[in-house]
Amino acid sequence: MENWLSDEEFRLSRLLEKVSLVIETNLSEDEVRRAQGFYGKRAEGMLRRGFSHADVIKKYPALTLTILVGHAALAYEQGRYWEDFWDELGLDRDPNFENVFRGQLRTLLKRYQLAEFEDLGNDYVRLLTLHAGVPTYCLGDLVGIIGSHLVGGRDASGASLVEWLNEPGKQSRMNPLDVPVRNFILRGGDFSLDILDRIFEFVEYTISQPDSWDELILDTSTTGLPTMMLDGLIDHLRDHPIGGVSSGNASSIRRRRKPTLVYDLQDEQVFVSIPYPTDEPEVAWRVSFDGDTREVYAERGWGVSGDQEHPPTLVPVGSPIRTIQLQHHPSNESHRLPVVDKRDPLILFAADGRWIQQRASLPKGQVIALFPRDAQLVDAVTDSPIESGVEPSSPVGWQGWTTAFVDLTEHHSIRLARTQTAETGVARSVRNSASPTFAFGESILGLKALNGLTVYSTRPEVTLPAHHNAASVSWRVRVRREGEAAWLVDEEWVTESETTSLDPFSDKASSLLGLFEIVVTGPLGSDIRQKVFLAEDLAISFDRDFRYPVVGGLSPITATADSVGKLEVDRVRVSFDVATRDAEIRVSDESRNFRLVMTPPYVEMRLDPVGKPAQWRTSVQVLTPGDLEDYSVIAARIPGDVSVSFALLSRNGDLLQEVTPDVPSDNTFQVLSRTFVDAVRTATGDCHIAALVDDSDGTTTSVALANIRPAELCSGIAVVDGTLIFEDLAAEDDLAIYLWSTTAPWLPMRTLEISEGRVVLPAELVDAGPLLGQVFVDDPWVTITPPRWPDSSAIRIEQRGWVRDANGTRDKLARFLAGEGSPPTSGLAMPETWAALAMLREDAEDVATQRLRAALVRILAIHPRSALEALGSSTIPAEEMVALLIRTGLVNRSFSAEYTLNDLHTNPWVGSMVEIADLPSLFERRDAVGEERAETISYLSEQCGPVLLEVLRGSSEALNSGYFDLNVARVHALSKPAVDKMFEQFRLVPGALLDLDTRVDATIDAFHRRGEWMSSGAHQMLASESLKSLRLVRQSSKAIYNVISSRSEALDGVDTVTHPWMLLSMQSLTLAALARLDAHGMLAYSPLTTGLMEAWARMAWLCPKLVMTDLLIAEALVTYAHCGDLIGVENE
C-alpha cells in the first residue's frame, strides 16, 4: 500500500503541474475512491505512530488535494462536506485534522500553481467545489438550463449563459441549479466559461448526431471535459436527450448573430449592433435605451439572398445608459444588453472594437477601456495606475467619460477606482500568460463577405505559450468550416519551455477559401475561439486611391482581382460607373464558390451637432447660412495617403476661405461649421464647402462636402391626382421627402424619392387625409436616420379622407382624426391613441384641438393601467411621457389590476409604477405567487435602488437630500458650464431611478430650465395653490406631509419672492402626492383643478426628470401610507 501511495503521489504531482483546476487531472471515480481508501488507512497508521496531521499532508500533498477535491466532485451535499468526507476515508471525524486541511489548502494550491480564487477568503469548502468544476450530481439541472438556452435561440456560449442567468430581476433563473454550480458560474471566471463552452459544444454535437454520438470514443482528448464530469454528462444525456432543437438546426446555433455593443475606433463612438431578423425583416426592431424606445429597421445586406446572413445594422448609443432592451416580435427575439453598471462603470472592448462581456476574461494585449473621467484604471493586485498608450479621448455623446487604450500584457487583473466616490470596481481577470494568442493575417482592401466579415488573404497565426515548469503541456488545435460538425484539422501540440507559433491549418493545401472556426483548448482557463474568412492568395487593386461624390453618384473607378494560387474569380477587372458603389465577384476553389462584395474606397462626409452621433454619408448636403451658426462639425473621411485642407468656394470655384482641419483619427478631417460663417455672409450668391485633397501623386482633387444656399429646399407641396407637386424645389441631387400621416400617426414614416420635381403617392396614402412632408437630401447608399416627428420645416399637405384600416377600431380612430366621425368607445387602440395625442401641439388652445384631445383622453381613461403600459412601450420620447400622463389626467388614476403576471416593462419608470401598484395584490396572495412577488421586488430594487425599498418599508430618511436648497440658490449667477462642472460627479454614471445621483441630476436639469419656467407663467398659479393643497396632504398622511415639509425647510434663507423657481422641488412633490393620494382614494376631494394640472404639465414638459422622480417617490409613500409594509420580512 505504501509503495502504491508513493507512486500515485508522484503521478498526481506531475499531473497537477500541468493544470489549473484539480479536476483537470482527469481521474475517474474509481481512482478517487481508491485514493481515499488508501489515504485513510495510511493516515490512520501514521497518526497512531505519533506523526502529526501536518506530517501526513506534507508526505502526500498531491493525494491530499485529490481526495479533498474528488470528494467535492463526487459526493458533496450542501452543508455535509466534512461528515461525508470522513466516511469515505473510513475514519472517525477529526476536527483537528479538518483545521489542518483548511490551513494547508492554499499552500497546496500555491505549490502546484493552481487557481487560488483569492476573493473567497477562508471559505474553504467553496474553494474545493470550484476546483471540482461541476459535481456529477449537479449536471442534470445544468444540462437542462443549457438545453433551454439552446431551444430559446440564445447564443451557445458560456459567457452568454452566465449573462442570462445573472440578468437583474431574474434571480429565479438560478434556482434550478445546485449551490456548487451557482458558485462555479459566479466565481469560476475563465475556468467556468471554458467548461461551459465545452459542455455547449458537446451538447450541440449530441443534437446534430442524435443516433450515433455515443458510439464514438468520448474522453477528455476529444471533448476537453474532465473525466468525472464527462462520465456524468454522458449518463445524463443518454437518459435525457435535449429536445426542441432539430439535428438540422444544431449546426446553425452558433452562427446566429445577437445584438452586441461595438466601439468604432475611427469615430470614437459606441454602437449597438442589431442583427437582421429571421422572420418578417420589414418589421422594425423596438430598441429601448433606458426606456426611451425607438423603432429601428435592420438594413438588408447588399447582394444577400435567401437565408444567408446579413451584416448587422449599427445604431449609436448617444450617452451613458444602464440598459438596452431589444425586441423583434415576429422573430420572437428579445435581448437585454447591460451597458453601464453604476457599481462598476467600466466598459471594455477588444482592440478591434468588439465588446468584452462583463464576466468574460480579458485578452493579453491591448484593450479599449471606457470609464468616467473621475475614475482611474488600476492594477487589481498592486493598485498602481494603468496609463493609456495614446492620448485618452472622449466618446461621442458620452460627456465626462474617457476612452483609454491600455496594454494588459503585464497585468493579471484590473479594476476601476473612482477618485471622488472612493468606490472600487470588480476585479476583471486577464487571461494568464499561459494562454494562446491569435493574430489575423493580411486583409484584402475593398473586399467583404456578404455578412460584412473582413476577408483575409493570408492565414492567421496561433502562438502557444511557454510552460515554465518542468512538465510539458498538451494543446488541442482544431479547425472546421463554419456550420459543419466535422473538423478539418484536429491535432495535439505539446509545449515546454519555449513559445510555439503555428499555422492552425497545419499542412492543409494553400488557397483556402471560406469561413473557418478555430478552437484551441488546453488547461482550463486558457481556451481561445476565433473565426476567420479566408480567400488565400487573392489580391485586389484599384486604379485610383478613392472615389468622391459627383453628379449621379461617385466618381468611376476600376478594380483588378489577382490570384497567385488556385483560387479563381469570375471577373478579373470590374468597372464601377457613377451609379454603382458595390459589385459582386464570385471566388471559387475546386469544390466551393462564394459570392463576395467588392466596395472600392470612397470619401464620406458628415455634418452633425457637436457631441451627437456621427451620420456618415456619400451625398453632398444642403445648408442655409443660418445652419452654419449652429455648433456643428463638418467632417470628411478620405482614404489613402493624403493631405487635406477645407475651403469655401464660390459658384465659379473661386477660393473664398481655406483652413487646415483637425485630424482626430487617421484619414478623418474636420472643422467647426462656425469657421465659415463670416466668409459666407460676405459671399455673393451660392457657394459650397469642399475638401481640397492632395494624393500621393501630387494631384489635387476638390471634393464637395456641403452646398450653401439661402432658401429652404421647398416652399410648398400640393396633391394633384395622387401626385405630390413641389413649389420652388431646390435644384439639388438625391432629393427625397419624409411623409407622416396625420390621420394615422401610428404608421411608420414613409421615405419617397423625388423624381423630376414630383412624387407619385402610394395607393394607401391617396385620399388618406392630410400629410406632413419634410424635404431632405437623401443618400443613394447610406441610410439616413430620419427624425421621429417632423420639425418646423415640415409642410402640411392637405387632402381629403383618412387612412383606411382593416382593423375596425383603428379605422374608426383614423376617421375621427380626419374630423369625419366619432371616436372609438373601446380601449383596444391604446398605442394608436397615444400616437394621435402626441401629434397635437402641447401649447395648442384652439377649440378643435381641445375637443380632439378630450376625446382621446376618454379612450385612454377606459383602462388606465393599459394606457400607462402602452405609453411606456411607445416611441414617444421618454422626456415627453410624463407631461402627457398629467395632461390626460391618468396621473391621478389607479394602475392596479386583478391580473398581475405581466412581463416586466422595458421602460424602468413605467414598469416601476406598475409593479408598485401590484404589491398589495401580490402581498395578499403571497403564499400562492411567491416567485412572482420575489421577481417584482427584485425588479423594483434593480430599477429604483435601495431608496425605494426603504420608502416602501416606511422609512423616508434617504429622501432628505437631492432637491433645491440654499446651495442651489447660491449658484444662480454661475454659467451653465460652471454649474455642470460643480455637479459633474452626480451626473457621470446613470444609476437607479431613486439613487441620490439620479435625483441630483433631475434637480440640476430643472435648475437649468428655471428661466423658461418663469417665462411660462405657470409658477404664479402653483405659488398659492400648492401651499393650500398641503393641508389636504397633512390630513391624509402626516408622514407624507413631513417629507414635503423637509423640502420647504431646506429653503430657509432663500428669497422665493425674487426666485420663485426655487419652489420647484417642493411644488413637484406636493402635486405628485396629491395625484397619487387621489388615485388611492385617500382624499375627500381632489384639489387638482384644470389650471393646476395644466401648470403641472408645463412643469413636466420643462423638467421631466424631476416630475418623474417625484411621482415615483409619491407612489411609494402613498402605497405605504395606504397599505403598510408590503415587502418587509415581518410581513412574510
Sequence stretches where pLDDT stays below 50 over 5 or more residues: 245-254
Measure the end-to-end span: 58 Å
Shape: globular
The whole-angstrom Rg is 33 Å
Main sheet record: 9 strands, mixed
Tell me the number of structural domains: 9
Helix residue percentage: 25-40%
Number of helices: 33
Strand order of the largest sheet: 20-19-22-23-17-16-31-30-28
Structural class per helix/strand content? alpha+beta
Layout of secondary structure:
Layout: H1 2-16, H2 29-48, H3 53-59, H4 61-74, H5 81-89, H6 95-111, H7 124-131, H8 139-151, H9 158-165, H10 179-187, H11 189-208, H12 220-223, H13 227-239, H14 247-250, E1 260-264, E2 269-274, E3 285-289, E4 292-296, E5 313-316, E6 323-328, E7 333-338, E8 347-350, E9 355-356, E10 366-372, E11 375-379, E12 401-407, E13 413-418, E14 428-429, E15 437-439, E16 443-449, E17 454-456, E18 461-464, E19 473-481, E20 489-495, E21 500-502, E22 513-521, E23 528-535, E24 538-542, E25 549-550, E26 553-554, E27 557-563, E28 568-569, E29 573-576, E30 583-588, E31 593-598, E32 604-609, E33 621-623, E34 632-637, E35 643-650, E36 655-659, E37 662-665, E38 668-672, H15 677-682, E39 687-694, E40 700-708, E41 716-720, E42 723-727, E43 735-741, E44 750-753, E45 758-760, E46 771-777, E47 795-797, H16 808-817, H17 830-839, H18 847-860, H19 864-873, H20 878-887, H21 908-924, H22 930-944, H23 946-952, H24 966-970, H25 976-982, H26 984-987, H27 996-1008, H28 1010-1016, H29 1018-1036, H30 1038-1049, H31 1064-1079, H32 1090-1102, H33 1104-1123
Parallel strand pairs: 17-23, 33-40
Antiparallel strand pairs: 1-2, 2-5, 3-4, 3-6, 6-7, 8-9, 8-10, 10-12, 11-13, 13-14, 15-18, 16-17, 16-31, 18-21, 19-20, 19-22, 22-23, 24-27, 25-26, 27-29, 28-30, 30-31, 32-34, 34-38, 35-36, 35-39, 37-38, 39-40, 41-42, 42-45, 43-44, 43-46, 46-47
